[in-house]
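Researcher: For the record, we're logging two predictions in this thread. I'll number them. Prediction 1 follows.
Model: Prediction 1, sequence and structure:
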Amino acid sequence: MKNLEDDDTVGQIDIAEAERLRNEEGWSYRQIGDRFGVSHQAVWKALRKAGKLRYVYGDVGLAWVEPPAGLPLNPKATKLTPADVENIRRSYATGLFTQTQLAGRFGISQKMVSWIVRGERWRST
């Protein structure tokens, strides 16, 4: 296994193939690393550098995750539409979703969801 800090390791990984193995075949990072002869951390690092993972706040705190389809990779670039805000408010009002679940779904922080449902951000007109 090669060292995680070795930047040459990242270059040895075929990002498209690693992403295919992960998403379509359900391989673990360790299995993909074995396939390319690198560590599982090197696979994760390569996918992160290629923009295939993003940093979000979820049920277990801050984590790098594979983004849901349709959400931008850069969480700071996430822009909510008025329809998204209304969807957040309605979903939370049903009691079926927590603020954290809604935050993960829309790629925003739990605090932002709290502000939205309390009318402190995106006030209704």
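Researcher: Logged. Prediction 2.
Model: Prediction 2, sequence and structure:
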Amino acid sequence: MSGTALTTLLLEVLRRQASRLSAADVMRRYGSDRFVAQGRGHAVAEHLRFAADGLARLGAARVRLELTRLDDAMPDVTEAVAAALAGARPVQVVDAPQRSSGRGYYTGLCFKVRADFGAGALDVGDGGFVDWTGQLLGNRKERLLISGYGIDRIAATSGA
């Protein structure tokens, strides 16, 4: 069988298999298939949701998340993160393209976390994607999302 004929056959098999799936089947498989990775926007949203929830529980009246895209290869995730964090929490998600710190350290995307515990907003956290795991494993596709928080600043201003 020629390469073209094999490709045509495989495409037809896949088309027939796909036609039998419902939208619910596709979503169920998306959630459980270890070969399907959710996008980086999802990782950023989950990471920042955890931070925003923690700061709100410590008494932050407002949390501001400033996202900075560091290269064009990183999709704009600001709207997706804002939508994922919409709700009862007092969270504002904004683009911060003017940020200069973290360039050369973070790759793709970085963020600042600012919180107001009643005495004005202050920087309490910082994070982004780094290429450490990719370097360790020799795989440029590997990504690691990290963040750090000044718990001393949070404790001093939150009354926690």
